[in-house]
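Could you help me review a protein record that somebody else here produced? Here is the record exactly as it was handed to me:
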Amino acid sequence: MTKEFEFFVYLIESYAQYKGKDSLSVMRTLDQKGLTEFVYRMYEMYHTEAIENAFYDIDSLISVGKPAW
């Protein structure tokens, strides 16, 4: 398992908890909107910042289809 994948799992589980959802529903939403790969590839940015910044970015991606930054 790569460090990127481990972080992705951590990120999705943490985001799901933050939103009061289960990680499967978060993944389903990302998949339906075609965002899963994008979020996965954001490892370099997301893992160096506060996790809340990643949450804010994911919220923006899901709601308007664009990163917050």
User: Anything to note?
Assistant: The mean pLDDT is 96. DSSP finds five helices and no strands in the chain.
